[in-house]
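Sequence in, structure out. Go.
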Amino acid sequence: MTKDAAILYVEDNISNRLLVRRILEAEGYTVIEAANAKETFAILEEENPNLILMDINMPDIDGYTLTGQLKDIPKLKHVPIIALTANVMRGDRERTLDAGCDGYIQKPIDVDALPKQIAQYLQEAKS
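Output:
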């Protein structure tokens, strides 16, 4: 379960979604996009992602709150939620992990490192 994995990317910025989609689809991943919490819940009624990438700064419900809500859904208990965020000040990584995220990737995105990071998180989820 690596390259054929489905990844849900929750991000309100369309440019960021486009960039991540291009990078990950080039590696063989399926990318499902949600622009906000409402779209996320609608998608999850139909889809079962292997990993969720979560923006933290969103207008309706922030990524911290949404992560907590997703972790309460039984079918997502073992799905890694990885923060993909521009929050890079001291303590932001810890706050993200305390909110329930299983990992942390900072923006701006390193286009060479992102596929390796995703593969690592998926591998850890399998074991």
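Check: The beta strands are 6-10, 30-34, 51-54, 81-85, 103-106. The radius of gyration is 13 Å.
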